[in-house]
Design brief:
Blueprint (H helix, E strand, L loop, with lengths): L1 E2 L5 H14 L8 H6 L2 H9 L3 E6 L6 E8 L13 E9 L8 H15 L4 E7 L3 H10 L2 E8 L6 E8 L7
Parallel strand pairs: 4-5
Antiparallel strand pairs: 1-2, 2-3, 3-4, 5-7, 6-7
Helix pairs in contact: 1-3
């Protein structure tokens, strides 16, 4: 696992653009807006408050997937309690799926969340994304019952929760 720094902005951008191109409906971000961002905007995203991680092939710069921990809301109106963090942008390249990359990314993120005193982890997944929902349920996430209809779509974001310590691998 590699913690992304502002010097990693190009690999971060490449991963984000690839994930948005492959699965545009799975994320909040707009692919066209992401493609139009400048290097300075990518660096600013990495600088905070999100913590970004990448799964990389050992000893190389090859990025297999990524994830981010959001300790503050998307907007000032979206308040996150002090003991909670939001998981965003989990994505693994298709050729790396089925190899435990998601579990390792979630383990590393859970450790950071616990270090920050944010053991209550939440995430949102589109209700139509059955593959993601099955992954999260297999890992122990449970639906909270909170739903947020997606603008311009017939689906909703479904919130899932887990205690960070339940994601830790031995």
């Amino acid at each position: 696992m590699h913690r992304v720094s502002i010097e990693d902005w190009a690999s971060h951008r490449a991963l984000r653009l690839d994930m948005l191109a492959a699965d545009p409906d799975a994320f909040w971000a707009d692919p066209a807006q992401a493609r139009a961002r400048t290097a300075a905007q990518w660096r600013a995203e990495i600088a905070g408050p999100r913590v970004h991680l990448q799964a990389r092939v050992a000893g190389t710069e090859e990025v297999l997937g990524g994830i981010a921990l959001l300790p503050a809301g998307y907007t000032l109106e979206h308040v996150i309690p002090e003991d909670r963090a939001h998981i965003v942008s989990l994505w693994v390249r298709p050729q790396a799926r089925g190899r435990g990359v998601s579990g390792r990314l979630l383990d590393a993120l859970a450790r950071i969340a616990l270090e920050r005193g944010r053991g209550d982890l939440r995430l949102d997944v589109d209700e139509s994304n059955t593959a993601a929902r099955h992954l999260y349920e297999r890992l122990g996430f449970t639906a909270t019952g909170a739903r947020d209809p997606r603008a311009g779509r017939s689906t909703a974001w479904v919130e899932y929760a887990i205690r960070a310590e339940h994601l830790l691998r031995p």
